[in-house]
Design a protein that fits this description.
By secondary structure, the chain is of the alpha+beta class. Helix content is about 30%, strand content about 35%. The chain has one domain: Aminopeptidase, CATH 3.40.630. Helix 1 packs antiparallel against helix 2. The relative contact order is 0.14.
Length: about 160
């Protein structure tokens, strides 16, 4: 079940992000900052947060998306993470399908995301390619020397 993120989800989401082993302290701090904006600023329309509660109700997935300012239909996928014990179970696909439907309902037609070129993100890159995202750009050494930024995008149709 996918539902809106609420402030009470913060600790569980932070634990999920740590469990992935992919995010450093600065990245987790950014996620926390976005969660705080979502949960403490009702009515803001920059970020929308969602969690996936597995069959037991435990949070197993996390998603933040938002419209790109000064565009008419481009959205950023800021965060999508799934607890490692749920890899391969369809949770990420459900979150991606949810994001796609959410964006379409609001007149959006592009979903853009950035990810790392490091080896630890190979699974992430394969997932997005399987979901029909294509690599739009690659900036060498963007995050740090040896860590490229790879931009993926999916043009929504229909």
């Amino acid at each position: 079940m996918i539902r809106e993120f609420v402030h009470g989800d913060c600790d569980c989401v932070l634990a999920l992000l740590v469990a992935t082993g992919n995010f450093n302290a600065a990245e987790i701090a950014v996620a926390k900052e976005l969660m705080d904006i979502i949960s403490t600023s009702p009515g803001q329309t920059d970020y929308y947060g969602f969690v996936h509660a597995g069959t037991s109700g435990e949070l197993v997935g996390f998603l933040i998306i938002g419209p790109v300012p000064i565009t008419t239909g481009t959205w950023d996928m800021y965060w999508m993470a799934v607890h490692p014990r749920c890899y391969g179970t369809g949770v990420a696909q459900e979150l991606d399908s949810f994001a796609e439907a959410f964006v379409r309902e609001r007149g959006g037609y592009w979903i853009i995301l950035e990810t790392s070129g490091q080896a630890g993100y190979a699974r992430t890159r394969r997932f997005f390619a399987k979901q029909r995202y294509r690599e739009l750009a690659r900036i060498p050494d963007f995050y740090k020397p040896g860590d490229d930024m790879i931009m993926f995008g999916k043009r929504l149709t229909g």
